């Protein structure tokens, strides 16, 4: 029995397994250690240099004893945790922590050992990230480590991780300690490392120095022959090889009979064989050392159960050997940069070189999008079709485009999103640098294409829209509108605000443009100006100069119809020439022109090129401008810092949840005392509620709480009807008896006689704060105002943790009823800081504990001077593995 076939030990946490990208772009497998790793530990130690052994163990230990190895390989995955990093069958890194005695606080001692052959490839950094995340899940707050002063590499791993590290030198050893709770700096470090590694991992795909097409035959219509022809015809600058099962004379490349005969270190293998042969061809590429693979072949997960099994086998092969793969069922890859000129796709014509990165999934959409790009004269930097998205996804491409100097904007047509949490954090980071435009189809089960591995969701489109807004993504509903926006952001500066001027030569078009601008929330502060029919080019230029120079204008909308005095080309030249003199965006409607026509192109004084985008109708121009204006406003908004309230007792909640699931493995709703304990652990005070069955019990409860009190029905039939089911400001025992009798009599016909007594709250606005764990999105935090806004109008805002302080403010302001919080009809504004603090604590609670299936604070009384949580319910359930755990992983 092999190690891979051995049964997993009790308590083995499979959710800790991850495929990770190292600093050099290669892929390795990270997983918890098992007893079966004992032999691998021996081999690992024997290969280490004397210096590495001494730095790890502080002694020249030539060989580890069987007893030592047994102790290292046998852990409980709680007090003692160890991870191993595997490349193929080799163990190349070990990381562990051991929980310290209780009197030393919630701390653990951490240690690493990295193979000499993998030093400098980021192994220690990625393993520390995973250990820290696991430690937080286990309730550990701080790591400590003893490191020899000469072990500079390991000292750098700790110091460069972004944590606040303290160190003390004692008896020849450097004693380090640091809090492992994420900070803005540690999260930034992690994101930067993840981005650099994943970007490098796809570089061989998009800019290969050598390409081998596997599956070329004599038929010109075959897939392999077409791709080879497109590579040659596109002028690919690297070394090009063809693998054919018989001798062929092919212009522009060298032909081989098998993959094994190829030169070493081929960057990209293009698999263009039948589905039955694709797996074997990929295995040949792996054995020969091909660095990455593009699989054009169909017949995988999109075909059903047998295809899914074939795709899983394909992924096992590439993952085990550290390769990245695009596909299967991909339309291909295109890189238009003149130094690369890669057209490894089924597109016969290379698109125009430009600055737009384009990602799509299905081949059919790829064909349509390339056609739209050509018709608009819109250039691209890269074009990628992911097919079944078995490995390389939009997330990977966004990581690549983040610092790609040839890409200024990104567009993604997503038929599914397998890991929304990772998508959100990557898109958010990218959006701060470049516009990200997304078309996303329906989130329902029927909207997911066959072959895409996507979890179900109970939130759907609303949660996805909220996630897009939170990440600063420009979301549109079609490919046409995606390229409407793309042609604007790739040619024009961003608007500073929503104020626009409208200039044209027809009253009707001007009014249409102005009305569209107002309906989309733009402010028309100049015009609409309609030039007369006999206007000459100079008149157009002057009107445009005045509009651009107006300090109350952030963008200029132009709309022209053909006329007799001045030629359309002259007017277009006047528009473009005037736009070159100003750093304000301009959009144009020239009837008959669409996209980025040459007549709307001019050279600036510094030699750069100005291009003004044209739209078929003013509404299209205005819609694109409004989308870009919203993005510009998002960029200008203060996003704050990660929420980090004081008084969080994570370990206390972990213990409570563990007890609940121990007694009720399927989960259950918490009792009131458990809810109060859980909330208090995160600094949330829940007002006590006393259920009562008669008037005397109500009086006793009121006496205990102190007057004034409130008496209310908690029956779902009437609980949100304050006139019918509530009596407040009750000041004494007699009044309690009177109120109880009156409500009991009134609600008896409705069978709603379920009463509670509670301390009377101050005047305020009743709100609902909640969270739920979603199979697809992970934790989702929600906010609304109680009553009709929530129940009838579905006026609910959503955000995905981890939240920043800016996210919390935006969540509160996202609901349509939010003006009620700012003072309405003479009421005093609520304490926004207190409400934001409450939402911050709920977001951390949801993010830290996936076992919290649902939590609702209802009502929350938001008032001047604070907030009061008057009611709460919490349901605990066994958690699913989250798609993104906050630590680096390709999944």
Alpha-beta classification: alpha/beta
**Rg, nearest Å:** 32 Å
Q: What name is given to the CATH topology of the largest domain? A: Rossmann fold
> What does the largest sheet look like?
8 strands, mixed
Determine the N-to-C terminus distance: 28 Å
The total of beta strands comes to 38
CATH class of the largest domain: Alpha Beta
> Regions with pLDDT < 50 over 5+ consecutive residues?
none
Mean pLDDT score: 90
Quick summary:
With about 900 residues, the protein is an alpha/beta fold.
Description:
The protein is an alpha/beta fold. The chain folds into five domains: 3-181, 3-Layer(aba) Sandwich (Aminopeptidase), CATH 3.40.630.30; 200-487, 3-Layer(aba) Sandwich (Rossmann fold); 493-636, Succinyl-CoA synthetase domains (Rossmann fold, 3-Layer(aba) Sandwich), CATH 3.40.50; 650-687 and 764-891, 2-Layer Sandwich (D-amino Acid Aminotransferase, Chain A, domain 1); 688-760, ATP-grasp fold, A domain (Dna Ligase, domain 1, 2-Layer Sandwich), CATH 3.30.1490.20. It has 26 helices and 38 strands. A hairpin with a 5-residue loop joins strand 1 (18-21) and strand 2.
List the helices and strands and how they pair.
Layout: E1 18-21, E2 27-32, H1 38-47, H2 50-57, H3 66-73, E3 80-87, E4 90-99, E5 107-114, H4 123-137, E6 142-147, H5 152-159, E7 165-170, E8 173-179, H6 184-206, E9 210-214, H7 223-233, E10 239-243, E11 254-256, E12 268-271, H8 275-288, E13 292-295, H9 305-320, E14 324-326, E15 332-335, E16 342-345, E17 353-360, H10 363-376, E18 380-385, H11 394-402, E19 409-414, H12 420-431, E20 436-440, H13 461-471, E21 474-476, H14 479-489, E22 499-504, H15 507-519, E23 523-530, H16 537-549, E24 555-560, H17 568-579, E25 586-590, E26 601-603, E27 609-611, H18 618-636, H19 650-663, E28 668-669, H20 672-680, E29 690-692, H21 695-705, E30 709-713, H22 722-725, E31 726-730, H23 733-747, E32 755-759, E33 765-774, E34 778-785, H24 788-791, E35 797-799, H25 805-814, H26 832-848, E36 852-863, E37 866-869, E38 872-876
Parallel strand pairs: 5-6, 9-10, 9-12, 10-11, 12-13, 13-14, 17-18, 17-19, 19-20, 20-21, 22-23, 22-24, 24-25
Antiparallel strand pairs: 1-2, 2-3, 3-4, 4-5, 6-8, 7-8, 15-16, 15-18, 26-27, 28-38, 29-32, 30-31, 30-32, 33-34, 33-36, 34-35, 36-37, 36-38
Helix pairs in contact: 6-11, 8-9, 10-14, 11-12, 12-13, 14-18, 15-18, 16-17, 21-23, 25-26
């Amino acid at each position: 029995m092999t190690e891979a076939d051995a049964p997993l030990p009790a308590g083995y946490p499979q959710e800790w397994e991850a495929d990770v990208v190292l600093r050099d772009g290669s892929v390795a497998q990270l997983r918890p250690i098992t007893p079966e790793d004992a032999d691998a530990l021996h081999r690992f130690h024997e290969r280490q240099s004397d210096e590495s052994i001494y730095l790890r163990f502080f002694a020249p230990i030539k060989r580890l004893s069987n007893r030592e190895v047994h102790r290292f390989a046998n852990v409980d995955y709680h007090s003692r945790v160890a991870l191993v990093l595997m490349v193929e069958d080799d163990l190349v890194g070990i990381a562990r922590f051991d929980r310290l005695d209780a009197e030393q606080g919630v701390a653990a001692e951490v240690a690493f050992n990295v193979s000499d052959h993998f030093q400098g490839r980021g192994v220690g950094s990625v393993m520390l990230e995973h250990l820290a995340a696991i430690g937080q899940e286990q309730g550990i707050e701080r790591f400590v480590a003893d490191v020899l002063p000469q072990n500079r590499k390991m000292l750098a791993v700790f110091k460069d991780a972004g944590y606040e590290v303290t160190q003390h030198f004692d008896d020849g050893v450097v004693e380090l300690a640091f809090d492992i709770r994420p900070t803005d700096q540690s999260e930034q470090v992690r994101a930067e490392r993840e981005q650099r590694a994943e970007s490098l991992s796809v570089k061989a795909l998009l800019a290969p120095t050598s390409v081998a097409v596997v599956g070329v035959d004599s038929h010109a219509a075959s897939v392999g022959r077409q791709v080879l022809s497109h590579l040659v015809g596109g002028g690919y600058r690297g070394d090009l090889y063809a693998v054919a099962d018989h001798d062929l004379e092919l212009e522009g490349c060298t032909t081989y009979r098998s993959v094994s005969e190829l030169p070493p270190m081929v960057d990209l293998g293009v698999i263009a064989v039948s589905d039955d042969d694709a797996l074997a061809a990929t295995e040949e590429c792996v054995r020969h050392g091909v660095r990455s693979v593009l699989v054009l072949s169909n017949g995988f997960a999109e075909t059903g159960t047998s295809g899914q099994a074939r795709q899983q086998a394909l992924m096992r092969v590439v993952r085990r050997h550290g390769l990245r793969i695009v596909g299967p069922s991909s339309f291909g890859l295109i890189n238009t940069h003149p130094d690369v000129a890669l057209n490894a796709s089924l597109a016969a014509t290379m698109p125009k070189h430009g600055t737009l990165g384009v990602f799509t999934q299905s081949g059919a959409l790829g064909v349509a999008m390339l056609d739209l790009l050509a018709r608009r004269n819109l250039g691209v930097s890269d074009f990628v079709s992911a097919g079944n998205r078995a490995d390389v996804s939009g997330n990977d491409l966004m990581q690549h485009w983040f610092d790609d100097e040839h890409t200024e904007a990104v567009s993604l047509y997503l038929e599914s999103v397998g890991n929304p949490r990772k998508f959100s954090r990557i898109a958010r980071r990218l959006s701060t640098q470049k516009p990200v435009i997304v078309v996303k189809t329906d989130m329902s089960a029927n909207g997911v294409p066959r072959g895409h591995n996507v979890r179900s969701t109970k939130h759907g489109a609303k949660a996805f829209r909220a996630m897009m807004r939170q990440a600063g993504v420009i979301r549109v509903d079609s490919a046409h509108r995606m390229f409407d926006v793309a042609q604007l952001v790739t040619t024009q500066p961003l608007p500073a605000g929503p104020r626009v001027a409208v200039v044209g030569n027809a009253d009707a078009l001007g009014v249409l443009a102005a009305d569209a601008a107002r309906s989309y929330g733009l402010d028309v502060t100049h015009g609409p100006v309609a030039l007369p029919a006999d206007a000459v080019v100079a008149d157009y230029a002057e009107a445009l100069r005045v509009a651009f120079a107006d300090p109350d204008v952030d963008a200029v909308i132009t709309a022209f119809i053909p006329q007799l005095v001045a030629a359309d080309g002259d007017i277009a030249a006047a528009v473009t020439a005037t736009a070159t003199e100003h750093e304000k965006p301009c959009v144009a409607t020239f009837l008959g022109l669409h996209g980025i026509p040459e007549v709307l192109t001019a050279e600036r004084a510094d030699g750069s090129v100005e291009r003004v985008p044209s739209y078929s109708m003013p509404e299209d121009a205005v819609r694109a401008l409004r989308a870009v204006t919203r993005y510009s406003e998002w960029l200008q908004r203060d996003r704050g810092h990660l929420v980090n309230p004081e008084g969080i007792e994570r370990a206390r909640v972990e213990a409570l949840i563990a007890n609940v699931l121990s007694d009720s493995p399927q989960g259950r709703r918490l009792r009131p005392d458990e809810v109060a304990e859980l909330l208090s652990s995160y600094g949330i005070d829940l007002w006590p509620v006393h259920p009562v069955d008669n008037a005397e019990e109500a009086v006793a409860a009121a006496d205990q709480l102190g007057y004034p009190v409130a008496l209310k029905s908690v029956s779902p039939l009437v609980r949100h009807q304050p006139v019918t089911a509530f009596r407040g400001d009750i000041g004494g025992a007699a009044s309690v008896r009177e109120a109880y009798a009156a409500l009991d009599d009134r609600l008896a016909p409705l069978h709603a006689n379920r009463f509670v007594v509670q301390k009377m709250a101050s005047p305020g606005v009743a709100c609902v704060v909640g969270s739920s764990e979603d199979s697809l999105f992970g934790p989702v935090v929600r906010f609304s105002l109680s009553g009709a806004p929530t129940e009838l109008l579905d006026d609910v805002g959503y955000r995905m943790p981890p939240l920043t302080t800016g996210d919390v403010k935006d969540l509160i302001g996202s609901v349509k009823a939010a003006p009620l919080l700012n003072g309405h009809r003479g009421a005093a504004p609520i304490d926004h800081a207190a409400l934001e603090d409450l939402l911050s604590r709920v977001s951390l609670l949801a993010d830290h504990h996936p076992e919290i299936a649902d939590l609702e604070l209802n009502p929350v009384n938001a008032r001047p001077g604070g907030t009061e949580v008057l009611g709460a319910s919490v349901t605990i359930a066994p958690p699913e593995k989250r798609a993104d755990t906050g630590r680096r992983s390709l999944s």
